[in-house]
Amino acid sequence: MFKTRITEMLGIEYPILQGGMQWLSKAELASAVSEAGGMGFITAASFADPEELRDEIHKIRSLTKKPFGINVSMLPVLMEGDITRRYVEVIAEEKVPAVETSGRNPEPFVPALKEAGVKIIHKVPAVRFARKAESIGADAVTIVGFECGGHPGMDDVTSFILIPRTAESLNIPVVAGGGIADARGFVAALSLGAEGVVMGTRFLAAKECPAHQNFKEWIVAAQETDTMMIERSIRNAVRVMKNEVAQKVLEMENKGATLDELIVYISGMVGKQAWLNGDLDSATIAAGQCVGLIHEVLTVKEIIDNIVTGAHQILGRLNGIMQ
Ligand SMILES: Cc1cc2nc3c(=O)[nH]c(=O)nc-3n(C[C@H](O)[C@H](O)[C@H](O)COP(=O)(O)O)c2cc1C
Question: A Gene Ontology MF term for this entry (predicted)?
Fold first, then answer.
């Protein structure tokens, strides 16, 4: 049994969340995580039309009776115009249990979400943004470190520092992400003051993840040195797998390329195609340093069960050390 303010708040068995992953975290993956005792999140940005998101919410409800959430990413490159407001309307109307917001301050949407009883977990890469999230009424904050797949912010501070700094700075519960892929990272995050963890990269290599098998095999073979940071020059730093496109983008950035010149390589639509056709070198693909810790493609249930049993074993070992 695990009991933290996160398990209590979300009504879940284990404080293990699956972070939103555009194009990938749809009903199949998210429901598998919720069914296994954690909480899965569907990424709203995978659906061009908010009504398609509503259909996906109905789909996940047919796959699991357990709580799930929706990720609302608000990075300008992902979200134009008022589509975020329309996603939020659907989420509120459907009374989804929780949202994972990211990329921008979710303050304009807090009243509507609160009124609908939706728990707000805002994901940030820095302590100052975590404090801000608490001040505007977020129910919890997810802090992601420099190791994470996706966007770790611009400060280059690792999870080992950010988790305790965030936990000591807030009153609301903290979820930790970035570099967590197994029981060791899970126990470490809880030791550092987190009350839950979020994982993205580990769930990429889950059987239920719709990513092409080539990506899963790449993760299993990859070392911790096989990711890299790009898009710093446009203040949209992102950790991705080290492939031909990422290296080209970095080279262009070093030569002063503009967003317009970069967009053909970094646009999400290119990534969508790659996830489906399995071409490892055609798009920039988010992945965290914990690829080096992932040695097998497993089912979501195996991933979560291994963390739970592994955590008990680690605690036993620690008790043996601290006599
Ligand atoms: C392939 C991939 C796609 C992602 N897409 C999103 C996204 O659309 N929105 C978002 O908020 N986070 C996104 N993330 C970040 C994850 O939700 C999570 O915060 C991160 O993966 C945690 O670090 P980890 O990769 O070390 O587990 C993505 C991560 C990966 C690996």
Answer: nitronate monooxygenase activity
What would the two tokens of residue 106 be?
């979710």
- Cα–Cα distance for residue pair 234/105, rounded to 1 Å: 19
- What is the whole-number distance in angstroms between the Cα of residue 180 and the centre of ligand 1? 12
For ligand 1, whether the C-beta of 149 sits within 6 Å is yes
Please give the Cα distance from 135 to 171 (Å, whole number): 10
Is any atom of ligand 1 closer than 6 Å to the C-beta of 200? yes
Tokens of 281: 């070198």
Q: Does residue 78 have a pLDDT over 50?
A: no
Tokens, residue 62: 């047919």
Is the CB of residue 36 less than 8 Å from the CB of residue 65? no
Question: What number of helices (H) and strands (E) belong to the chain?
Answer: 14, 10
pLDDT over 60 at 80, yes or no: no
Whole-number Å distance, alpha carbon 21 to ligand 1 midpoint, is 5
Q: What domains can be seen in the chain, in order of their start residue?
A: 5-211+295-321 (3.20.20.70), 213-289 (no CATH)
DSSP 270-316: HHHHHHHH--TTSS--B--GGGGG----B-HHHHHHHHHHHHHHHHH
Instruction: State pLDDT tens for residues 162-177.
Output: 999 999 999 999 999 9
Ligand 1 neighbourhood includes 288 CB (under 6 angstroms): yes
How close is the Cα of 239 to the center of ligand 1, in Å?
Answer: 9
Q: Report the nearest atom of ligand 1 relative to the CA of 147.
A: 26
Task: Compute, in angstroms, the gap from residue 287 CA to the centroid of ligand 1.
Answer: 8
Residue 262 near residue 232 (C-beta atoms within 8 A):
no
